[in-house]
Amino acid sequence: MGLCAPVAHAARPMITDDARIVDAKACQVESWARKNHGGTEFWAVPACNFTGNLELTLGGGRLRDDGNPSTTDTVLQGKTVLKPLQTNGWGIGLAAGTVRHSLAAEGRDWYAYVPASFSFKDDRVVLHANLGWMREHATQRNHVTWGLGSETQLSERTWLIAETFSQNQGRPYYQLGLRHWIVPGHVQVDTTFGNRFGSRSDTQWISIGLRLLSAPFLP
Q: Domain 26-213 classified CATH 2.40.160.40?
């Protein structure tokens, strides 16, 4: 979870994950571009649920820092739901994965976390909480990760996204954005603005994303 592990991805554009997975026997592709101070990122992250309660994700991103060669990150993650989220109820899941950075000759970052979600007002407001662990290969250090987020329905197809999260010591990050369904349940676009609390423009970012979801394709 956090800036270097895009899959702690809940549904785009959130970084704080939810206690939900792709529908059984269906797939999705999340893609986005993100402009950071002095660089850009381009991501495509497909995920499928072949068995009914195990979402498998394999994707990657191309990162460009001004004045430096481009690098590539790859992500592999598995996620399951332990208690399905119900309307006006709660749900909980478990996810674990690894991120490989092309700058590292060997080794990967490893992470695991527990996402919990809480539904209010007939699903018009949904809150998410994450607690997890990450092993950073570059420093050989372990980190506690956490996130708190909310989805608030503004209209039939549009949602307001707000969250705060961190995976290191120091001030946490925040992100605000909008999610809009062009085709409900199948085609979604989003945009966000984020920064670190108490920081200036050198840590802020903006992003735009596209999410495509399939209908079930297996009997």
A: yes
